[in-house]
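Inputs:
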Amino acid sequence: MSLKDRKRNVGEAMKKRYLLLTLIVLSAVSLFIGVSSISPLDLLNVQSEETQIFLISRLPRLVAILLAGAGMSISGLIMQQLSRNKFVSPTTAGTLDATKLGILVSMLVFANAAMLEKMAVAFAFAIAGTFLFMQILDRIKFKDAIFIPLVGLMFGNILSSITTFFAYKADVIQNMSAWLQGDFSMIMKGRYELLYISIPIIIIAYFYANRFTVAGMGEDFSKNLGLAYRRVVNIGLILVALITVTVVLTVGVIPFLGLIIPNIISIFKGDHLQKTLPHTALLGAIFLLVCDILGRVVIYPYEISISLMVGVIGSGIFLYLLFRRKKYA
Amino acid sequence: MIEVLSLSKFYGKKAVVEDVSVTIQPGKITSFIGPNGAGKSTLLSMVSRLLDADTGEVLIDKADARKMKSNEFAKRVSILKQSNYMNVRLTIRELVSFGRFPYSKGRLTDEDERIVDQSLEYMHLTDMQDQYLDELSGGQRQRAFIAMVIAQDTEYILLDEPLNNLDMKHSVQIMKILRRLVDDLGKTVVIVLHDINFASVYSDWIVAMKDGRVVKNGPTEDIIQSDALKEIYDMDIPIQKMDGCRICVYFNS
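Outputs:
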């Protein structure tokens, strides 16, 4: 089979209905894997312990995975489009690290604040960090595909070390690391609902899809088509920051997801956002779900945290993309 | 008609474009020529509103360009810059469809689809419309961008060095297409060119710039003269007439 044929076959498999089918099957699998065995029949009895576990733990976990997977992938997609670089994502542009710093500040300064207030502080930091990165990007004349994410990683590491320093001083390192590691095992009813914010954000992103695509072709190009370039970029970055903050606050940091999923879709489906946004969201959810199921099965009855699973699988795929993309990224 | 009225652009104290006034005649190809750094591209960017002018104004059919809504402006004037840096993976058809963005914001009507079809047909891209831009040769990609500009359906089409990185065959192809846009569809084309012979053979009007100022401005046959070229390029360039074309033989002057 030639490369082109193979590509077409994979592209065929990336059709929305196949992705949706895969997602539904995996979701069902996910609901019935865990330490306490629950069978679909148990659910017929509404009062049973199994049903309670199902409603308090399993279902919220699934919803959280789907929303986080779709959300992080889409925020990566938007960032890559707006920065015009395939290797930029919340992980490689300092957004995640700025969010962590924001969470630390909210923990130290506004210790008694409610979740929503903490979110507002974290959001302010996430948006400031992302804008700062875009400003740096504007000033770099040498726009090499690999160089820019490296700058982003360095920028993120600087923010991260500031966070660690103050966390250490305030003796909250332990507390912080709970945010740093993405983990779905703590997701329960009442602790994940913040994630629902990403649903309207994804819908807004879909309405802006065409504008993001045009903006991705550059400022001059956008202006030629009468697009308010700056405004569209700013809206995009705000959406990205919002999604990132809700995910980090509820689940924790999930690396690589925003990087690899949009790239895989881009290879097979191109960059027309209005067409690829649904695919990106679906594949992101599927990928995260697979990682979560594996993490729960590999050392059963214990589990491996999602950030480790995604980190291991994701970095492998990322390396592959890096070598593959080199020629035209 | 595009009227440029004493337009200037300064970077620090240095004037890149200084007090330039020039009128672009409708239904013609006007070429901007001149040495590197003469301010041709900067001028074109200001006319197309990509760059703010420091002084002066641009009138599009007597209306102040700055006061037009960006969407309305995009229906009247289109500009294609020399953009080799483009890593968005779109198919030719998707790119050309974005030419209709000022009209439909991406939700294409039947009328839009029809115009996209026509533009593809016009640039002989119909057969390859589903190929991705990053899989094309330089000439094909340039044709795809021009097809997008055609779909944008503006009266004024501004092109900044569209022949850059193209071989002879594709350069001639692009210039012939621009000629047809003017002769068949009545468009007004303004183009920055480096190759003076392409300017000589294909344009109706030539504006020559040097050090940010207009030094010559007139019909092609008035500018393609040894004495005028001497003033523009500081070179003695003999002119040969061949088949009704005036060719500048600058290679050993």
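Remarks. The first helix of chain B runs from residue 40 to 47. The CA atoms of residues 27 and 183 of chain B lie 8 Å apart.
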